[in-house]
Amino acid sequence: MSSVYVWKIGGPAGFGIMTTGPMFAKVLKASGYHVHGYPEYPSLIRGGYNCYQIAFGDTEVTAPYKKIDMYVALSDECFNREMFEEGTYVIGDFANLKNAGDIKAKKIDVPLMDIVKEMDGPDIMRNSVALGAAAALLGLDFALLEKNLMAAYKEKVAKINVDAAKKGYESVKERYSVVCKPSPDKCAPALYVTGNEATSIGAVAGGLTFFSTYPMTPASSILHYLAKCTREHGLVVKHTEDEISGINMAVGASFAGARAMTGTAGGGFSLMNEGLGLAAITEVPIVLAVSQRPGPATGMATWTEQGDLKYIINASQGEFIRAVYSPGSVEECYKFTFDALNLADKYHIPVFVLLDKFLSESHFMAEKMPETGEVNRGYIFEGNEEEPMAYFNRFTEKKDGVGVRVIPGTKGGLYIASSNEHTDEGFVSDKADVRKSQVERRFRKLKPLTDDMPHPELFGKKDAPLTFVCFGSVKMMLLEAMKHTDKFNFIHFPAVIPLNWDKVKKMLEGRNLCVMENNYTAQLRGIIAENTGIIIEKTFLKYDGRPFFNEEIVSFAEEAAK
Amino acid sequence: MKALDYNTGQKPVWCPGCGNFAIWNSIKKALAEAGVEPHRLALVSGIGCSGKMINHVRAYGFHGLHGRTMPVATGIRLANPDMKVLVNGGDGDGYGMGVGHFVHSMRRNVDLTYIVHNNKVYGLTTGQASPTNDVGSPSKSTPFGVVDEPLNPIAIAIDAGATYVARGFSGDSEQLAELILGGLNHNGFALIDVFQPCVTFGGKYQYEYYQERVVKIENHDVTDADAALKLSKTKDKLPIGLFYKAEGHPSYNEMHPEIEKAQVRKRDVTALLEELV
């Protein structure tokens, strides 16, 4: 695994790691490398230990590694948290680092604080000095660092940071030679984008007009991104008093004609359960982006897991259909969010885009976002001028179980969206025949909906000795590991329900299967067993809040294939 | 429009003598007078006897969940500025379960009219004390008497930012209709708390109880928040009428200039993507 080089920066929260890391990744990208950025941080504003890993190389990189080739240590805490090998280069201000004495790594001593003091800058400027040093060691063109620093900061601050970086660059260049310069492939200019950004942009592209929620890691940045888009792109974004309000407000807006969405993590979704059922029985279209983190309750707020799949599929009382996309890449985040908005409008159902912290907050490179179809609002009643006061049979089947939607304000379209079981006009009814026919009509959507969902796909060589089965972001980790071993291929589920399970069954049969999930109970395995009768015995599960690191997958696959 | 035009033909299921009949009639009268066309009216209801109003007033209806009328109504108001929004809920719905949404909606000054059927009891679940029930009253859930202090919705509303705060009585449907009309014509959050006896489970809180205590608000400056707050805390009598009305506060929609541009259409996101290169 030599062509991938791993650079990492670590220090306490408040030291600017989360701006410095992505910025340096952009410098590497501009230098022609393929890059992947992975952040880890505790739920703290100051202190603790934040780090940002950049894996880069001359071909696509999509997942984090255990190994560290070059590390920027901003505090003593780094040496308690990271394991360094003899070959690791550690950039640090060693006069000010007490714990670094016995590390095996090669120390690159840069007087970060002396340089900052000399320039009369704020302490946080040491980051720029360190980046300069790293750029010199990696043989990067200083002009690219300068350009990205200028773009990252406001003009006045940017200038002094560039000067600081220059000092770091020169200080290293005088004393050390370039330690690693894998020849970059000069990849095309590409996006450097997180799953949450891609999801948000997919929503904007898809004509979203209303988003309401309460912030919760790791979904908060969807709220932040969309909030910035409101004025220019004409969408209403509300940070509500709680998640209950968030989903109910979105449901109200959607009823009134908006294209509405909410976004949260598992804990917030717990509060949204009743609103989910409300959307289902009123047949108000809604999209929910749910980003998973380890639970239950508060769990581990800033870490990753895939522990909410079964919950998402089963949440709320009663029986109703829903669609669950489980994107595995930023491209899929973008496309599926666009599609989810259409699907919700087409079938008048809740549609999920299921993310996790790893996908939501890690950075991936994408050449461009996929093509999408057109915005489609489904069947909409145009009105009846002759009888403006008339009630409308909103819940009478037009086709495939789907009724005709009415936007309030339309003449002759009066109806009630009721949380109670109801007649075709929406009046409350608990008559047996009404209940039966409404339930059956709503479930008639299932067949055509199934045909609209993306089907699981096989990646890798057809005849590999081992086939991993996964959903969501694990795809990115497996694509990375595939570069290092040919012992496995994998089947990825880009959506989990509804699916054509006969087709899924055929795809799974006759293979040496192993489910690979970021959870303890192998939830996808359970869903597959329930729908196909296939019980996958081998499991590769991780539930410590971390994604699968590349080395772990490679060694598991090689062991399992023996 | 005439009051009768708002009938839906659905037969009410309220108990004979229920205070909801008077509220129903007052709503229809006020709507007719305000000239609200049914297709321009969004009626939102919570759960409980009050929620059943949705079946009896000709309009676009949203019969939501217990305690959650306010966010639904806010979503409708923000997404569709052409609609007049009228909300019916009970005291359990709005002042119990939904009290958080109630307070936040008022601080937002959402442009809607909120009628709370306040009978101090949970009627549809057969007689538990609601948050407005007085200390000492027995109920199914408080057989030895309520010990929680009652919540004062009028005081909370004035303090939280509602810009039209009134109380009606279903024994005086004339005045109630006027108060609702005032709410419909008001640009901002209008709360109309209504004393409405539950004739089956309301215990001592029947028509006679209120008739002995209600007194019409007179000689009161409705623009004076402090005076309104003081009036809301009257102990021996129960004032009905308009407590408070603030003009000139922007309503929630006015604070959202993006609403005018909010249209469902495919958007070009090239510029957003370029920012990430």
TrEMBL record, chain A:
Signal sequence interval, chain numbering: none
Protein keywords: Oxidoreductase
Domain of life: Bacteria
UniProt domain Pyruvate flavodoxin/ferredoxin oxidoreductase pyrimidine binding: residue ranges: 202-366
Keyword Oxidoreductase recorded: yes
GO biological process: response to oxidative stress
GO molecular function per UniProt: oxidoreductase activity, acting on the aldehyde or oxo group of donors
InterPro entries: 2-oxoacid/accept_OxRdtase_asu (IPR022367), Pyruvate:ferred/Flavod_OxRd (IPR050722), Pyrv/ketoisovalerate_OxRed_cat (IPR019752), Pyrv_Fd/Flavodoxin_OxRdtase_N (IPR002880), Pyrv_flavodox_OxRed_cen (IPR002869), THDP-binding (IPR029061), Transketo_C/PFOR_II (IPR009014)
Alphabetical list of SUPFAM superfamilies matching this protein: Pyruvate-ferredoxin oxidoreductase, PFOR, domain III, Thiamin diphosphate-binding fold (THDP-binding), TK C-terminal domain-like
CDD domains (alphabetical): TPP_PYR_PFOR_IOR-alpha_like (cd07034)
Domain Pyruvate/ketoisovalerate oxidoreductase catalytic: 14-170
PANTHER family, per database record: 2-OXOGLUTARATE OXIDOREDUCTASE SUBUNIT KORA, PYRUVATE-FLAVODOXIN OXIDOREDUCTASE-RELATED
Name of the featured protein: 2-oxoacid:acceptor oxidoreductase subunit alpha
Organism of origin: Geovibrio thiophilus
Taxon lineage: Bacteria, Pseudomonadati, Deferribacterota, Deferribacteres, Deferribacterales
UniProtKB/TrEMBL annotation, chain B:
A Gene Ontology molecular function term of the record: oxidoreductase activity, acting on the aldehyde or oxo group of donors, iron-sulfur protein as acceptor
SUPFAM superfamilies to which the protein is assigned, alphabetical: Thiamin diphosphate-binding fold (THDP-binding)
Domain Pyruvate ferredoxin oxidoreductase beta subunit C-terminal residue range list: 198-260
Keyword Plastid recorded: no
InterPro entries: 2-oxoacid:Fd_oxidoreductase, OFOB, PFO_beta_C, THDP-binding, TPP_enzyme_TPP-bd
Pfam family, one: PFO_beta_C
Cofactor(s) required for function per UniProt: thiamine diphosphate; [4Fe-4S] cluster; Mg(2+)
Alphabetically ordered keywords of this record: Iron, Iron-sulfur, Magnesium, Metal-binding, Oxidoreductase, Thiamine pyrophosphate
Record GO biological process: cellular respiration; small molecule metabolic process
Location of the Thiamine pyrophosphate enzyme TPP-binding domain: 48-194
Annotated protein name in UniProt: 2-oxoacid:ferredoxin oxidoreductase subunit beta
Organism of provenance: Geovibrio thiophilus
